[in-house]
Amino acid sequence: MIRNRQDLRRQLEALAFNQAGYFTAAQALDVGYTYQAQRYHATTGNWVRVDRGLFRLPHWPSAPEDEYVRWTLWSRSLGVLSHESALRIYDLSDVDPPKIHLTVPPSFRAKDPMVITYPQELPEEDIEQRQAWQVTTPLRTLADVSGSDLSQEHVNQAVREALDRGLATRGAILRRSDVLTDRAALRLERALATATENHGNL
Description:
By secondary structure, the protein is of the alpha+beta class. It has helices at residues 2-17, 25-31, 35-44, 66-74, 83-90, 138-146, 152-164, 170-177, 182-200; strands spanning 22-24, 48-51, 54-56, 80-81, 100-104, 115-119, 127-129, 134-136.
């Protein structure tokens, strides 16, 4: 029996290792921990209960990307970091959103005060895979924020920095603007024009 418990622990630790120390109740159940066993480990401090159905191994070192793993697991790995959160991930502009922005499937219904969700299907080419979470590509991110309530100043800054760092090209941005709403296309094209003017004045 001791050997079995050790095997379970090793399997859970291997899973959590790839998820910044986090794991869900469903994942623990798949490994072999019954809900009764999960309550025991949470009560005794073997696991840290982060949220309903979400745990973390104790003493796991913190890292800046931890929150992205946490909220991805909260979304049952259906959510993709997007909009202002994606700008922050790519360090495009000085946006520092107080909430997590996730694009989720239209059928997703969960809510949390710390999360802003955008129900929409994303094509694979608009998604970039990280170790335990996903983020919209820089080009998709620029398109998304141009259609959001983000200030024009921040959109301008994001476009300029994306161009400067080679994360997007002028042609790709123009092509993307063709499929956006009129408002989003106008804001994106205005940002592109501003960036082009600034380069011309250098």
